Amino acid sequence: MILELVTMSVKPELKAEFEETYRQASPLMSRARGNLGHELKRCVETDGRYILLIKWATIEDHLQGFRGSPDHAEWQRRMHPFYAAKSFIEHYEAV
Amino acid sequence: MILELVTMSVKPELKAEFEETYRQASPLMSRARGNLGHELKRCVETDGRYILLIKWATIEDHLQGFRGSPDHAEWQRRMHPFYAAKSFIEHYEAV
């Protein structure tokens, strides 16, 4: 299992709308092959900062499967208006 | 539930020893009041980078409970030799 960690900076005045859009767009990610769940979390210390934790069966399910899919393009199209900066993406493996 | 996200930079030549020390020190964290589990993850992209994901019942269980405890001091004492830089700590809440 691979954990994708996405760190996002969202325009503070659009937080509520961002969270609602995330909920509506979630099936795009849930139905991707190898997706084992995802969770959005809001930072306590920094206004507008969020992390998205996504579990994938393999790193290829993310980088080659989901990223090349029309669902990913649609996800990006819906989420992009809310970002105040480029998101930061890393992958983590179990220790 | 509050998620504590700790981003750590470990001296690459000490990774194996760090991971073993983490395993041995884990009970110090597990037995803290309000600790609901913790996981160490190794970054795929950046050598020596780790995240520690710690679930707390409340943020006070971390900031006032664990942080002020002798177990926290012991945790720090065991982990500190492996760090290449200061760790970065944030808290996240469910959306």
Structure notes:
Two copies of one chain form a homodimer. In chain A, 35% of the residues lie in helices and 34% in strands. The first copy, chain A, is globular and about 35 Å long. Chain A has one domain (2-93): Alpha-Beta Plaits, CATH 3.30.70.100. In chain A, strands 2-3-1-4 form a four-stranded antiparallel beta sheet. With 95 residues, chain A is an alpha+beta fold. Chain A starts with a strand and ends with a strand. The model of chain A has no long low-confidence stretch (mean pLDDT 97). The interface between A and B is medium-sized, with 23 and 23 residues. Strand 4 (88-94) of chain A pairs antiparallel with strand 2 (35-43) of chain B.
The percent of residues in helical segments of chain A reads: 25-40%
Largest sheet of chain A: 4 strands, antiparallel
**Radius of gyration based on Cα positions of chain A:** 13 Å
CATH architecture descriptor of chain A: 2-Layer Sandwich
The parts of chain A where pLDDT drops under 50 for at least 5 residues are none
Q: What is the CATH C level class of chain A, in words?
A: Alpha Beta
Shape of chain A: globular
- Could you tell me the number of beta strands of chain A? 4
Counting H and I runs of at least 4 residues, what is the number of helices of chain A? 3
What's the overall average pLDDT of chain A, rounded? Answer: 97
